[in-house]
Amino acid sequence: MREDLKVYDNVLQLVGNTPLIHLNKITSGFKGDYHAKVEAFNPGHSSKDRIALYIIEEAERKGILKPGDTIIETTSGNTGFSIAMVSIIKGYECILAVSSKSSKDKIDMLRTMGAKVYVCPANVPADDPRSYYEVAKRLHSEIKASVYINQYFNNLNIDAHFNSTGPEIWKQTEGKITHLVACSGTGGTISGTARYLKSKNPEIRILGIDAFGSVLKKYHETREFDKDEIYPYRIEGLGKNLIPTATDFDVIDQFMKVSDEDAAHTARELARTEGIFAGYTSGAAMQGLKQYAEEGEFDENSRVVVLFPDHGSRYMSKIYSDDWMNEQGFFDAKNELSTQDIEI
Ligand code: PMP
């Protein structure tokens, strides 16, 4: 790569090294200083580029993957897109087993990126042979030269962020960061970043974001799996109905739950106030930060980094659609995107 001319050999050289952007308006009145780590600047528009590239290159280093081999995962979301992107450049087959609940747009996007997509029935238990988990496992056992990424139960997910997101934030803040605010889904982002930052300064506070309807916060507090915490919610990619081993609960200091509605409004507010067009979980992270601020977490000396996992374009038919917001009963005049249709 010609660093001086910013000419790259392929898109993968653009994974990571995302910018830290000062938050100017949305945090007005809060004590301290606030920056967002905007992961939409990755070529696949999300933090998942980091884990796709890292896990695949680890498999290459260990001699497990050769060109032409197959990479398997169960996701229709960001991870699927990132694995498909890495597979194209490196010459692997990419198979994604997805639920029939996935939108047609998402499936089309993955196919556009060269993935072979198996659409599996959504309404069967996880251990049913037709479920996307079971289909992925079966394909992995049948296709000898294959790697199953299994992001919720793969420690390399943590390592990917320990080796990239953590060092980047440490360097970008010149070691002055005092708090990290990040969502937890698989837990890879928050755990890996936290492990690195705490290895540099154990005093840094790691503040997780969870969804109402997910078990993570309760598990963090009690180390017990409480199935009563589980109910449907709308934010995708945040929270979970099981305990992922890719989450290191010991490096997270606290969890905060955010509602679907607050997260949606705050994502829209981010666009209007900061010009940052980010995804639903970015709205959740920002909303969680506000709630932490209300609880008195920050003071004048706080140097806070909040991580925004992906780009807003993937949510046009959801939080950025007035119709969808209305259907959810989420609308209020303050947050209207276009307040009036102007007749010409
Ligand atoms: N936001 C989005 C949009 C995601 O897809 C994910 C991944 N599930 C997360 C946040 C959470 O990141 P992690 O899996 O590293 O905890």
Automatic annotation (TrEMBL):
CDD domains: CBS_like. The keyword Ribosomal protein does not apply. Keywords: Pyridoxal phosphate. Pfam families: PALP. It comes from the Bacteria. Residues 12-310 form the Tryptophan synthase beta chain-like PALP domain. PANTHER family: CYSTATHIONINE BETA-SYNTHASE (PTHR10314). This is Pyridoxal-phosphate dependent enzyme. The lineage of its organism: Bacteria, Pseudomonadati, Bacteroidota, Flavobacteriia, Flavobacteriales.
